[in-house]
Write a structure and sequence with these properties.
Length: 336
């Protein structure tokens, strides 16, 4: 049984030294337990927060403990009445080949799910985050302009496509020409602007001739800077993530712009609301059938980047924080 533990806490961007691959004995399930074998491991930006012991909404991973993470796993031995050997489950086994569970928090996906890995993405936590943040906080209306960054990732791509379904003008922001082309040609956005472009601010302004009514915040930093002057009166900003600053050790250099932000919030009556998807647990039943229908009918498209081998997880994770992933990042840990 291989597992990847947190060897040390990163200072700034994580490095190989922060992770350690270990071999351990295969655990054996007791009465009421199942032994799970990981097939797919989800890699998500929030894991950078778990590597740090700064106060947050969730406990940090302890040193020498397995890195946390959502998994799609198979039951290899069952001493639990609700699970049979061979069942697929959505679990939270973390970065390892095998894990024990007493069934708490497991979702049984049955013996033969169609796209098991989708439950880590568009049909799971990231898709649900996109859905609730946009619809509950963003309140998009037909004809309004919606801007979303990290626009080809599992959250951003889903936000933009729901925006189109709701009749918005959707402007994505993504890193590089390939991602931007995909945003327009495959995801159906009205425009998708490359944040690496020298004239990014001007291009964003040109793509939003009527201003911005909903800014779905995934990244912060220079994208937020470019968005701020374009916001319309009564604009909504669901604050979902700030990935550009997850590796930061201190506040950015330069003038303090808090006053500017608060001034805009006042004169434009902005609604800026952070949220964590746990807050919406009781509404999963509203999301899941709707999103399943959109995916099945092709109204919402979904792209995965699948990396082979547990040992590749640290590199793939570090790359994601710099935008090297193109689509939902998933590690194939073991065979079906
Ligand atoms: P993604 O797969 O979209 O990966 C993150 C992306 O962020 C990168 O691919 C990159 O895309 C972009 N990025 C990284 N650094 C920068 C930067 N400096 N400036 C602009 N863009 C940058 O991740 P997810 O879809 O899983 O997550 C998107 C956001 O949603 C994250 O902030 C995450 O923390 C948040 N989230 C929040 C939840 C909540 O409960 N509040 C739950 C789930 C996710 P590109 O190359 O296009 O720039």
């Amino acid at each position: 049984n291989r597992r990847i533990v947190l060897a040390s806490r990163p200072e700034g961007a994580p490095t190989d030294e922060n992770f350690r691959l270990e071999e351990t004995e295969l655990p054996q399930p007791g009465e009421g337990e199942v032994l799970l074998r990981t097939v797919y491991l989800s890699l998500d930006p929030y894991m950078r927060g778990r590597m740090s012991d700064a106060p947050s909404y969730a406990e940090p991973v302890q040193l020498d403990e397995v890195m946390v993470g959502g998994t799609v796993s198979r039951v290899v031995k069952s001493c639990h009445a609700d699970f049979a050997e061979g069942d697929w489950v959505l679990a939270y086994s973390g970065w390892q080949d095998y894990a024990l569970s007493d069934g708490t928090g497991l979702t049984n996906l049955g013996a033969n799910p169609e796209h098991p890995s989708y439950t880590l993405g568009v049909l799971g936590m990231p898709g649900f985050t996109a859905y609730m943040g946009l619809l509950d906080i963003g309140q998009p209306k037909a004809g309004e302009t919606l801007v979303v960054a990290a626009a080809t990732g599992p959250v951003g791509a889903t936000v933009g496509q729901i925006g189109k379904i709701k009749g918005c003008r959707v402007v994505g922001v993504a890193g590089g020409p390939d991602k931007c082309r995909y945003g327009v040609e495959e995801l159906g956005f009205d425009a998708c602007i490359d944040h690496y472009a020298d004239d990014f601010d001007e291009q964003l302004a040109a793509a939003c001739p009527d201003g911005i009514d909903v800014y779905y915040e995934n990244v912060g930093g220079k994208v937020l800077d470019a968005v701020l002057p374009l916001l319309n009166t009564f604009a909504r900003i669901p604050v979902c993530g700030l990935v550009s600053q997850y590796n930061a050790e201190s506040l950015p250099e330069g003038p303090d712009r808090m006053g500017l932000l608060m001034g805009q919030a006042l004169v434009k009556r902005l609604k800026i609301q952070g949220f964590i998807i746990f807050d919406y647990q009781d509404r999963f039943g509203e999301f899941f059938p709707q999103m399943s229908e959109w995916v099945a009918s092709g109204k919402v498209k979904y792209r995965e980047e699948i990396v082979d081998g547990l040992e590749q997880a640290p590199q793939a994770f570090m790359g994601m924080l710099e935008g090297k992933n193109f689509g939902k990042l998933v590690v194939r840990v073991g065979d079906d």
